[in-house]
């Protein structure tokens, strides 16, 4: 049981970095993904997506690239909304074996990614610590004591549980 997340261009190249010519993309992971890439397109601007199911009211945009997916077994979480490509999926979820496989067919914006990430973390019972944007926190237990490693990945002053973090500063906090 587990979760795999594939992103656009998955399966395009083999382990020797050669393009898989003549093979339907996403190549060897197609059965896991439960969808195939019918067309591809690089993007110069953001394109709006239409959400389905639990994502029906979550606005989404895709940028940089788009894989135009045909869902074979996968559930379509988002599809393209422009008139030429509205029959194609942009983001899918497939249940494969005992696991879940997501395919994100382009540069998806933050809001739907955060919802997916939270769902994945919770459904897999992964411990996490809520923190401000660009502040990474992970806990470690050593000899029955808990420590938090807190890292500010921004060039701005950040605060975490009363501790100020200068730009790019890291701290170890004993709990």
UniProtKB/TrEMBL annotation:
Listed Gene3D superfamilies: 3.40.50.880
- Domain Beta-galactosidase C-terminal, residue spans: 135-174
Q: Which InterPro entries does the record match to this protein?
A: Beta_galactosidase_C (IPR013739), Beta_galactosidase_Trimer (IPR013738), Class_I_gatase-like (IPR029062), Glyco_hydro_42 (IPR003476)
Q: Which domain of life is it from?
A: Bacteria
This protein's name: Beta-galactosidase trimerization domain-containing protein
- Domain (Beta-galactosidase trimerisation): residue spans on this chain: 2-126
SUPFAM superfamilies given in the database record: Class I glutamine amidotransferase-like
């Amino acid at each position: 049981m587990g979760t795999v997340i594939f992103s656009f261009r998955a399966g395009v190249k083999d382990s020797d970095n050669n393009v898989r010519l003549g093979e339907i993309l996403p190549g060897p992971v197609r059965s896991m993904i439960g969808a195939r890439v019918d067309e591809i397109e690089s993007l110069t601007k953001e394109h709006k997506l239409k959400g389905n199911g639990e994502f029906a009211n979550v606005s989404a945009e895709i940028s940089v690239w788009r894989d135009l997916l045909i869902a074979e077994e996968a559930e379509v979480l988002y599809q393209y909304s422009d008139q030429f490509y509205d029959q194609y999926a942009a983001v899918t979820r497939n249940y494969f074996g005992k696991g879940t496989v997501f395919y994100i067919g382009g540069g998806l914006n933050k809001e739907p990614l955060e919802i997916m990430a939270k769902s994945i973390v919770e459904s897999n019972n992964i411990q996490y610590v809520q923190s401000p944007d660009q502040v990474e926190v992970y806990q470690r237990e050593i000899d029955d004591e808990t420590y938090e490693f807190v890292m500010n990945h921004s060039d701005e002053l950040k605060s975490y549980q009363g501790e100020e973090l200068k730009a790019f500063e890291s701290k170890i906090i004993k709990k």
